[in-house]
């Protein structure tokens, strides 16, 4: 009997050790699985109520719970939960009474980061209206298209954008779109400053009857995907989707005592929904900055006693490459959550700034599939197992990069990749994992749906991203496919850039693509150009045209002149070889040009310029 007890005791001692060797992530897998299931249950329970308990109700519940708690820290300003609630009620009354908005209407906001972004959103929620978040980098044609595509009746902005607004104001008036400044005074004739009227309005709670028809499927937000440069697409964010995304923080241990910081623009879902809405979901405090500053980032973290930071990969690279300081580890940040961070930057960041927990995630604004790396495995965007795979219903399928299409078998269905093999990520479209699409854009909505994936008649959301899942269940982002690349934290749709640039009188044909740059996240824009017969390349004209026609992140930095542009048998432009060849003048015999910001012109590319870029001496 003593021998038996000894054996049992030995096994009990060995089990944890054996578990660590053979199942090192078992405990984290179980923890995340239970938190994920709890979040899904919470979302379903809240949204199935009649009326549904939407994100607005989450916000109002937090106001009741701790009204005087700081919600927004912005510069020297502090706004409590109660103050944001009261201002949103004041705004709601003006939006409804003075602007004439009614339930179901859409309002475009063209704003920089500020507390107003939140109270305007909550104010519109209180009267059942949709807020369309427009990227304030876009201008003229792109701006008009964004407002038109989401069907906005009103546009809210500030005098910061006076020149931009006055440029499009006549067209907006023709379309019946009212424009207002969120300021006391207005420098533009015919555009009213609303802030004074809002401040003098009643702050009493807005009756629930003003949003009586809101359901889980109602549209809360239109968030414009950054991959659409010239012609933005408005991703429809339903009440259900907003609620689901806002629950991410609760799954990784962020709690009410945390102070969350982001300098990222609120017109993107990462900052608005993951960071700000996630902060409200757990009842925490949110520190907001107008825009990112590498030199002031950690000073802000110390000033606000930040415990959670929200990032994109490019931001982390800037921080890691900024001048070292004696107090680099003097901060209280314990969690970093975001997406797009390369493995080498990840390691460098942790080595320099301390061993905080990094939660890298993957997801698209309009997508129906997402991952989160809850283990801290450097380089991975997520982790999965049998149970999570069943819940997520995604597949990774073989993809022909040159033909820019999925590989199909003799039956016409797609072919799954093996572990360790790169393929296209697709997410099954179901009632639980829907793909709603883009406002007023049925054509582009249909383009994102891939049919007959595993069997005839099924439908999957095409992420447009190549990922790889290894034998241990870790998932890694590899690249974007076809017509999109990522630069400066923004997605760039090459087809839209091509549509804009081909309008120039000396361009006959153009092929836009992204090329990797040493030491930089993502890929930078480059264009192969065939000139019209008898016309010369005009670098100055191209510079001026791109500056006036598209956001800076979408402008190609390199131009390669070609006598002919190769196409596939199905008349698609060939990009893969051009991407491989990059922009090195030592290996390319074609004429090359570089975007010279100092000279405000595209100038001939030299080996010296290439070397300066490779050595990170020349800022891009």
Under the CATH scheme, the architecture of the domain at 57-69 and 80-244 is 3-Layer(aba) Sandwich
Number of strands: 30
Widest sheet, order of strands: 2-1-11-10-12-13-14-15
Determine the structural class based on helices, strands and strand pairing.
alpha/beta
Residue share in helices? 25-40%
Helix tally? 19
- Biggest sheet features: 8 strands, mixed
Remind me, CATH topology of the domain at 57-69 and 80-244? Rossmann fold
Termini gap: 75 Å
Give start-end ranges of low-pLDDT stretches.
none
Overall geometry: globular
Task: Walk me through the topology.
Blueprint: H1 2-22, H2 26-47, H3 55-65, E1 70-74, E2 77-80, H4 81-97, E3 106-110, H5 116-126, E4 130-133, H6 140-149, E5 154-157, H7 162-174, E6 178-181, E7 192-193, H8 195-199, E8 219-225, E9 233-238, H9 239-246, E10 259-262, H10 269-282, E11 285-288, H11 297-304, E12 308-312, H12 313-321, E13 335-339, H13 343-353, E14 357-363, E15 370-372, E16 382-383, H14 386-392, E17 394-397, E18 399-400, E19 405-406, E20 422-428, H15 442-447, E21 449-451, E22 459-469, E23 474-480, E24 484-487, E25 490-493, H16 494-501, E26 507-516, E27 523-531, H17 539-549, E28 558-561, H18 576-581, E29 592-596, E30 601-604, H19 607-614
Parallel strand pairs: 1-11, 3-4, 3-5, 4-8, 5-6, 6-7, 10-11, 10-12, 12-13, 13-14, 27-28
Antiparallel strand pairs: 1-2, 8-9, 14-15, 16-23, 17-20, 18-19, 20-22, 21-22, 22-23, 24-25, 26-27, 28-29, 29-30
Helix pairs in contact: 4-5, 6-7, 9-10, 12-13
């Amino acid at each position: 009997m003593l021998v038996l007890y000894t054996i049992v005791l030995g096994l009990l001692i060995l089990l944890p050790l054996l578990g660590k060797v053979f199942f090192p992530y078992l405990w984290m897998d179980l923890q995340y699985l239970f938190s994920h299931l709890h979040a899904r249950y919470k979302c379903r329970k809240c949204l199935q109520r009649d009326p549904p308990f939407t994100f607005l109700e989450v916000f109002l519940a937090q106001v009741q719970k701790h009204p005087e708690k700081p919600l927004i820290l912005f510069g020297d300003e502090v706004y409590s939960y109660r103050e944001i609630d009261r201002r949103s009620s004041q705004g709601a009354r003006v939006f409804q009474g003075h602007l004439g908005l009614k339930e179901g209407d859409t309002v475009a906001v063209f704003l920089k980061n500020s507390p107003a972004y939140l109270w305007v959103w909550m104010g519109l929620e209180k009267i059942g209206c949709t807020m369309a978040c427009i990227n304030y980098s876009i201008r003229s044609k792109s701006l008009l298209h964004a407002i038109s595509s989401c069907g906005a009746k009103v546009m809210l902005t500030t005098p910061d954008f006076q020149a931009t607004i006055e440029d499009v104001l006549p067209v907006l008036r023709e379309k019946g779109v009212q424009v207002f400044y969120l300021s006391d005074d207005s420098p533009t004739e015919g555009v009213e400053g609303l802030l004074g009227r809002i401040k003098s309005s009643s702050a009493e709670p807005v009756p629930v009857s003003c949003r009586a028809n809101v359901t889980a499927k109602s549209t809360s937000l239109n968030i414009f995907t950054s991959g659409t440069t010239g012609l933005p697409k408005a991703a429809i964010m339903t009440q259900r989707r907003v609620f689901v995304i806002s629950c991410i923080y609760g799954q990784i241990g962020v709690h009410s005592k945390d102070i969350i910081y982001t300098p990222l623009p609120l017109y993107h879902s990462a900052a608005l929904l993951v960071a700000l809405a996630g902060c409200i979901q757990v009842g925490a405090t949110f520190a907001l900055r107008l825009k990112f500053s590498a030199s002031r980032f950690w000073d802000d973290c110390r000033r606000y006693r930040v415990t959670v930071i929200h990032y994109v990969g490019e931001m982390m690279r800037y921080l890691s490459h900024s001048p070292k300081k004696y107090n680099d580890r003097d901060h209280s940040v314990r969690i970093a959550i975001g997406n797009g961070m390369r493995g080498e930057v990840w390691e460098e960041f942790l080595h320099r700034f301390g061993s905080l927990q990094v939660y890298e995630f993957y997801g698209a604004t309009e997508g129906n599939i997402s991952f989160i790396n809850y283990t801290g495995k450097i380089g991975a965007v997520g982790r999965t197992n049998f149970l999570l795979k069943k819940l997520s219903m995604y597949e990774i399928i073989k993809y022909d990069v040159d033909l820019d299409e999925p590989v199909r078998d003799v039956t016409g269905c797609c072919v799954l990749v093996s572990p360790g093999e790169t393929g296209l990520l697709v997410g099954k479209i179901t009632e639980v994992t829907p793909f709603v699409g883009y406002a007023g854009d049925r054509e582009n909505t249909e383009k994102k749906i891939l049919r007959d994936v595993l069997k005839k008649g099924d439908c999957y959301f095409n992420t447009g991203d190549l990922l790889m899942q290894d034998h241990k269940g870790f998932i890694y982002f590899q690249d974007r496919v076809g017509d999109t690349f990522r630069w400066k934290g923004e997605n760039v749709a090459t087809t839209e850039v091509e549509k804009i640039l081909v309008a120039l009188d000396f361009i006959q044909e153009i092929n836009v693509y992204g090329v990797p740059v040493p030491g930089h996240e993502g890929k930078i824009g480059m264009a192969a150009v065939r000139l019209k017969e008898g016309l010369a390349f005009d670098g100055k004209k191209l510079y001026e045209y791109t500056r006036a026609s598209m956001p800076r992140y979408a402008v190609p930095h390199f131009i390669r002149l070609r006598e002919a542009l190769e196409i596939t048998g199905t008349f698609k432009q060939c990009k893969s070889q051009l991407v491989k060849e990059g922009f090195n003048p030592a290996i390319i015999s074609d004429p090359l040009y570089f975007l010279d910001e100092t000279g405000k012109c595209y100038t001939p590319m030299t080996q010296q310029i290439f070397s300066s870029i490779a050595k990170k001496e020349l800022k891009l």
